Amino acid sequence: MPMAPTGTKCSKKEVNRGAWTAEEDQKLAQVVEIHGPKRWKAVAAKAGLNRCGKSCRLRWMNYLRPNIKRGNISDQEEDLILRLHKLLGNRWSLIAGRLPGRTDNEIKNYWNSHLSKKIKQNEKQTRMQEPVLENSKVSEREEPLHKASEEGSSKRDEEYSTSCFNGDSSLFDLYNEEPLELEWMSHFFETDEIWLNLA
DNA sequence: AAGTATACCAACCGCGAGCGC
DNA sequence: GGCGCTCGCGGTTGGTATACT
């Protein structure tokens, strides 16, 4: 690490850590309402919160932001997360972007606590049911798409997205989707300009 | 009832990218 | 071009709740 910029690390000993109180939430929400969700260091100072900017940002993004949905992830949402994860890998922010009101942190937690286990179980079951395949073929098929762009992470999302949606319809073949099951995906593209551009 | 293990999730940390000076 | 600051992301940790023995 060439530098340790102030503001990237909550290094002050006297800074508050741990769970947020209702009072802190209220102060933060008030200041963000006035000044907007930016310059978090200044927001923390203006709110009189003994917290680092980073902590304030996280709190706002995950809990205080308007239209945040908490808990009760529906089957539909779960299905979407599974599909998107298969497509995007651990790009939690991108996945969250497709689920209105959900945060990357929540999805990440949900994945780690629920879905990763579910998947492992499913894999176990399918391995027991399927005839043994050649190792190379299995790994080729199961290789997450995002792996290819994982190394050299600069502009990784952009590059990765481009590689996924450069018009190659084999993307869908890879997931062995029935046409009807792709309904959600077409809606996906229809509703987002950025993704449309990539497609 | 007490102790231990496991699950869940809020919060923190390290890092890289982008921007303005 | 280099530096400092800010933002955002993904991985990890730690506290709390719940289940199990």
Fold and architecture overview:
The protein folds into 3 domains: 22-64, Orthogonal Bundle (Arc Repressor Mutant, subunit A), CATH 1.10.10.60; 74-131, Homeodomain-like (Arc Repressor Mutant, subunit A, Orthogonal Bundle), CATH 1.10.10; 151-199, no CATH class. It has helices spanning 22-35, 40-46, 53-64, 75-88, 92-97, 104-129, 135-142, 156-164, 170-174, 183-190, 193-198. It is elongated. It is mainly α. Helix 2 packs across helix 3. It comes from Gossypium stocksii. Residues 12-68, 69-119 form the HTH myb-type domain. Its main location: nucleus. Residues 12-64, 65-115 form the Myb-like domain.
Morphology: elongated
The count of strands amounts to 0
Number of helices: 11
Instruction: Please provide the ordered H/E string of secondary-structure elements.
Output: HHHHHHHHHHH
Number of domains: 3
Low-confidence stretches: 1-7, 133-182, 193-199
The CATH level-2 architecture of the largest domain is identified as: Orthogonal Bundle
What proportion strand? under 5%
What gyration radius follows from the Cα positions, in whole Å?
Answer: 21 Å
* Highest-level CATH class of the largest domain: Mainly Alpha
Mean pLDDT: 67
Biggest sheet layout = none
Instruction: Look at the structure and name the CATH superfamily of the largest domain.
Output: Homeodomain-like
Helix content: 55-70%
In CATH, the topology of the largest domain is named Arc Repressor Mutant, subunit A
User: Ends: how far apart?
Assistant: 36 Å
Please identify the structural class as seen in this structure: mainly alpha
